[in-house]
Amino acid sequence: MLIIEKGKLIGKRFWQSRVVRTASAGLLIFFSLDFFFPVSTNVLYSTIITARDGSILHAFLSRDDKWRMYAELNEITPTLRDAILFKEDKYFRYHPGFNPVAMFRAATRNLLTGRRTSGASTITMQTVRLLEPRDRTYSSKLIELFRALQLEVHYSKDEILQLYLNLIPYGSNIEGLKSASLLYFGKPPVLLSLAELTTLTIIPNRPSSLRLGVRNALVVQERNRWLARFRTAKLFNDEAIEDALNEPLTAYRREAPQQAPHLSRRLHAENPTTPIVQSTLQSATQATAEQVVQRYADRIRAYNIHNSAVLIVDNLSHEVVAYVGSANFTNTFDGGQVDGVRAIRSPGSALKPLLYGLAFDAGIITPKTKLADVPINFGGYEPDNYDRRFNGPVTAEFALANSLNIPAVALLKEMGTPALVSTLQKAGFTAIKKQAKELGLSMILGGCGVTLEEMTRLYAGLANGGNWEPLVFTPPLTPPLKQGEGDKHKLTNSPSPSFKGRGLGAGVNIMTPEAAYLVTHTLTQITRPDLPNNFDNSYHLPRIAWKTGTSYGRRDAWSIGYNQRYTIGVWVGNFSGIGVPELSGANTATPLLFQLFNVLDYNSPTGWFKAPKDASKLSMRLICPETGDIPGEFCTNPVTDYCIMGVSRYRHCQHQKAVFTNAAGTISYCTQCRPDSGAVRKAYPNLSPEIIAFYKSRHIPFEVVPPHNPACERVFGSTEQAGPQITSLTNGSEYFINPKQPAEMELSCQVANDVQTVFWYLNDKLYSKAKPTEAVFFKPRPGALKISCADDKGRSSDIRILVQHE
């Protein structure tokens, strides 16, 4: 008896050890095969661009031309999960990738009938077939079983179900439940009703016969049959089933979402392998901006102006909330697919606020500093104002608000072009980086290349107290997952890796908060010529700071404005570069800017810009209204002006100078010839030569210093004052003449207001005696030429030119 029991025990242990060894060997073989032949879940998904709230803006075909949109785990609702599992695989949660009972039942039926009457594929096995399509053979079945086990080992049940729903076919080139939901019902899966969900669960088994939009009656019949099964199985309550049975089927093939096409293409190019790219766009703001721009473009088309572009930025986060690259993306005739936000154009006068801000910070000017708006020759460059008029001496704030060209060029010349170029380079102006060595004084009037994105970003820096930061196009969240990785881990809304956002250390202080406040304060004024027609004294006028720009030849119209909440950049023109006489920043671009602000942020509750908190820097001081300098001896009516303490230039006003004359005021004296008695000390205007020339050309009266004492034997020409300034011709220039018909050249100069006569010399030989405002002409000869001009006080200046035959 003992021997028998020992035998049984030995036999039991033998079989146990054999089972263990067999199982161990099987696991070793499985994991070895799994290591050398891993299952691949790399799927080429369609790229979809979403708004900030997750709503879909734009969808692109996958690289194999399929509509295969990625559904996230949170889009698989309990209703969808229950319906699909009941229909396809009731024991999905319990089997290891295959269902042995179902396989045995199917094999028995097939053997008894001699044909294939039923299948035993689980959702896991169907997922394998969708990933790796094969012929329906027994060997293929074995591979599917192995692959199914691999999926179960490496992925959770929810992830396998997610992968399955992303791959199931719906006919044509539509794959995945999310694609079908959007293209047939026009909404995401989470918004589908029970009837719509049931419809989408039955299509994949018969995508050819149950064609949505074509055989909807047959689809309804099959849908209701499955709804009856759901009721029998008590999967859903009777009320939900009844509502689903009575719901009409309105499915038809729709176009894929196509909103924000320009930014969507941009983000797609930056993230070609990311299934879902979340943008910072606000869907309602984007839709509103697109409608406003398209309607406005329709109105101005009568003037042969065909395109517009708009960029709207949230000033707090620097996120782009609306991006309109053209008036109509589908209009190929007018270049609708050109991205006007990134197109390089001439800015006109739109860079002037930056120049004035830099000049405030350099201490060169304050808002009430007087600048000369008169004809000036800047070494051969003679700019003109937009309206071809001159205003004489004006304040800096008037010059900026009225976008006067000559004061801006003079200011840039005083500051130096490299200072402005350097700031623009730091602020990410790519074309200016390339053109840096070629840029001169004309750049402040539009002689450079910029984009709407760069300009809007610059003005957003003004709205943020002079702190420039890159624009944010995608939220700075989790790094993006590549295609195929989204099935292994839950895909999160993720940013494009190529765009940096707020807080990433990429900010640049382009100017101090004090200078930015002074610029904003000036750009808020509404009594200015770039206020559009019919907008003065209008309740439709938004409270914003804005600046316009019109490029040479009226090819580009700009208007960029900001309040505390938004910065909006507007460009209007033709992508072809054709100029239009009616095109201007004031009357073409600014109405669109105002309309956008009125629609998006009318009577903004966010308040207005306040002076910087550090009151010790931005202060008020008394100045002379004639010059903007500290009141001097002859300044009797001072006014207040802003200044930046420790920075703004501190000099006493010299708009008038003391001159000793005789009692009748007909002769002036110097210190050498002033008599011991009888001389009278009087104040006379201390005008610059260019202002004197302007007053004389416009016949504007001003008090002139009397002629100097003719009996004075003093030799003039000391360094007290500079000699005449030759304004034509240009020193160091080359001039080409036609030897058969040589044209005459003009000589002109600017002198002090006490000069009555000037003398012109050619190669040190006297050529002409003339009044300071009189133009002198001569016929040049080939060769080097020295031109000299002397005044009646003995002061002189020279230039040298080279004359050559053409």
UniProtKB/TrEMBL annotation:
<dbReference type="InterPro" id="IPR001460">
    <property type="entry name" value="PCN-bd_Tpept"/>
</dbReference>
<dbReference type="GO" id="GO:0006508">
    <property type="term" value="P:proteolysis"/>
</dbReference>
<dbReference type="GO" id="GO:0006793">
    <property type="term" value="P:phosphorus metabolic process"/>
</dbReference>
<comment type="pathway">
    <text>Cell wall biogenesis; peptidoglycan biosynthesis.</text>
</comment>
<dbReference type="InterPro" id="IPR023346">
    <property type="entry name" value="Lysozyme-like_dom_sf"/>
</dbReference>
<comment type="similarity">
    <text>In the C-terminal section; belongs to the transpeptidase family.</text>
</comment>
<dbReference type="InterPro" id="IPR001736">
    <property type="entry name" value="PLipase_D/transphosphatidylase"/>
</dbReference>
<keyword id="KW-0645">Protease</keyword>
<feature type="region of interest" description="Disordered">
    <location>
        <begin position="476"/>
        <end position="498"/>
    </location>
</feature>
<dbReference type="InterPro" id="IPR036950">
    <property type="entry name" value="PBP_transglycosylase"/>
</dbReference>
<keyword id="KW-0808">Transferase</keyword>
<dbReference type="GO" id="GO:0030288">
    <property type="term" value="C:outer membrane-bounded periplasmic space"/>
</dbReference>
<dbReference type="InterPro" id="IPR001264">
    <property type="entry name" value="Glyco_trans_51"/>
</dbReference>
<dbReference type="InterPro" id="IPR009647">
    <property type="entry name" value="PBP_C"/>
</dbReference>
<dbReference type="GO" id="GO:0009252">
    <property type="term" value="P:peptidoglycan biosynthetic process"/>
</dbReference>
<comment type="similarity">
    <text>In the N-terminal section; belongs to the glycosyltransferase 51 family.</text>
</comment>
<protein>
    <recommendedName>
        <fullName>peptidoglycan glycosyltransferase</fullName>
        <ecNumber>2.4.99.28</ecNumber>
    </recommendedName>
</protein>
<keyword id="KW-0328">Glycosyltransferase</keyword>
<dbReference type="InterPro" id="IPR012338">
    <property type="entry name" value="Beta-lactam/transpept-like"/>
</dbReference>
<keyword id="KW-0378">Hydrolase</keyword>
<dbReference type="InterPro" id="IPR011815">
    <property type="entry name" value="PBP_1c"/>
</dbReference>
<dbReference type="Pfam" id="PF00912">
    <property type="entry name" value="Transgly"/>
</dbReference>
<keyword id="KW-0511">Multifunctional enzyme</keyword>
<keyword id="KW-0121">Carboxypeptidase</keyword>
<dbReference type="InterPro" id="IPR050396">
    <property type="entry name" value="Glycosyltr_51/Transpeptidase"/>
</dbReference>
<dbReference type="Pfam" id="PF06832">
    <property type="entry name" value="BiPBP_C"/>
</dbReference>
<dbReference type="GO" id="GO:0008955">
    <property type="term" value="F:peptidoglycan glycosyltransferase activity"/>
</dbReference>
<dbReference type="Pfam" id="PF00905">
    <property type="entry name" value="Transpeptidase"/>
</dbReference>
<dbReference type="GO" id="GO:0004180">
    <property type="term" value="F:carboxypeptidase activity"/>
</dbReference>
<feature type="domain" description="PLD phosphodiesterase">
    <location>
        <begin position="302"/>
        <end position="333"/>
    </location>
</feature>
<dbReference type="GO" id="GO:0008658">
    <property type="term" value="F:penicillin binding"/>
</dbReference>
